[in-house]
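Hi everyone,

Forwarding the result from last night's run.
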Amino acid sequence: MSRGADFEAKLARMYRHLGYRVERTQASNDHGADLLLTKHGRTIAVQAKSYAKPVGNKAVQEAFAAQAYYGTRAAWVVTDSTFTAGAIAQAKPCGVRLVDGAELRVLRRKARRRRWLPVLGVFACAALLAFCVLNPQGAAQLASWAQAR
């Protein structure tokens, strides 16, 4: 897998953990979007760039074009690097959101925390079930506790 495809796969996984429905576009002729994210009925075209150097305004143009092509409500450029001054200047009037490496690290930490929520929920349910099964008055105690709340 190429560096770009690997980066796109990692972004897709991260955004799924953050609660987005993720659709990956075709590798070639993607019309400027690598991912389409949907959450709360809002779809976002994402141009992913894994570069060692700062990302330029071409990526902003691609994301803006993808927004029009896919009919999304927003366009983002996400990178593990930074953006050039030209990209920042062009993104503002186009309404393209820029997510740089620093913000991406914050999002990854948030996604890692959310990844464990379903697991913790299963453990909590198992603990309650064990309490009710092992303690003959467990169910009655839980019911009276719930009514008191």
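The helical segments are 3-17, 57-70, 85-94, 101-115, 117-134, 138-148.

Cheers,
N.
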